[in-house]
Design brief:
Belongs to the cyclin family. One of its GO terms (molecular function) is cyclin-dependent protein serine/threonine kinase regulator activity. With about 240 residues, the chain is mainly α. It has helices spanning about 5-25, 30-40, 50-65, 75-80, 90-110, 120-130, 135-145, 150-155, 155-170, 185-190, 190-200, 215-235. The relative contact order is 0.14. Mean pLDDT is about 85; it is low at about 210-235.
């Protein structure tokens, strides 16, 4: 499988996860956990071996359990199979749940039951709060780290958050604070090469040929809604 084809398969799987996460009103960290599991699974197995939609379904179910976002298998089945003006049969729902439970065990086994996943969202909000980042920049930064790529498998969460926030400032053409008296400024100065590397990795998605752009565009639209909801909830805490 070519690099672009594998990336497209990952994008499609993550798009499914995010769409269903939106329907289920899952917290963004639960969607991120499901996405990270999906990437982790396919770093060990091929898309030719397992259908991406089956693995994505299982990842959502596992993430709901591990992050204590209480959603039953029946809830996931109805959200995943939902189509306007269509009534789901009990038989179809039961078949979905049976497959879900089967692939849940496969995903857990292949990923070695490793649920230790550090998300960059909390680090991002800490940096943003420290340097009084405008909301538009924060939303842009969130859009850059919506787990379309397996960044969490390659880099630490703080570095990902730093790169995304820096890209958010650049995206809005706003000069970013570089005061070395701040934790943000010190981290930026000490890890400039790594942050540049992460920014380059994030931009890989945007370099895909036009034939792949629809998947990326649809995923970005869903992320914008989810990110706004999460940021709003975070401000209430």
């Amino acid at each position: 499988m070519k690099y672009e084809e594998e990336l497209l398969s990952r994008l499609r799987g993550i798009c499914l996860i995010q769409c269903v996460g939106y329907r289920l009103e899952l917290p963004i960290h639960t969607v991120a956990t499901a996405s990270a599991l999906f990437h982790r699974f396919y770093s060990r197995r091929s898309f030719f071996e397992y259908k991406a939609n089956k693995i994505a379904q299982a990842c959502v179910f596992i993430a709901c359990k591990s992050d204590e976002s209480s959603r039953r298998a029946n809830d996931i089945a109805k959200s995943w199979l939902y189509k306007p003006n269509q009534t789901l049969s009990e038989k179809r729902i039961n078949k979905f749940i049976a497959d879900l439970l089967y692939y849940e065990l496969i995903v857990l086994e292949i990923t070695c039951f490793d649920m230790q996943i550090d998300h960059p969202y909390f680090e991002l909000f800490e940096f943003a709060k420290e340097i009084n980042t405008p909301n538009d920049v924060v939303h842009a930064a969130l859009a850059f780290i919506t787990d379309r790529l397996p960044l969490c498998l390659w880099y630490d969460s703080r570095s990902i958050a730093s790169a995304a926030l820096l890209m958010g400032y650049h995206g809005h053409d706003i000069k970013f604070p570089a005061d070395t008296n701040s934790v943000w400024g010190q981290f930026l100065e000490a890890n400039s090469d790594l942050i540049g590397e992460i920014a380059g990795s994030i931009m890989e998605v945007y370099k895909l040929p036009k034939k792949y752009s629809n998947t990326h565009h649809n995923s970005s639209n869903n992320n914008a809604t989810n990110n706004n909801t999460y940021h709003s909830n975070n401000n209430k805490r």
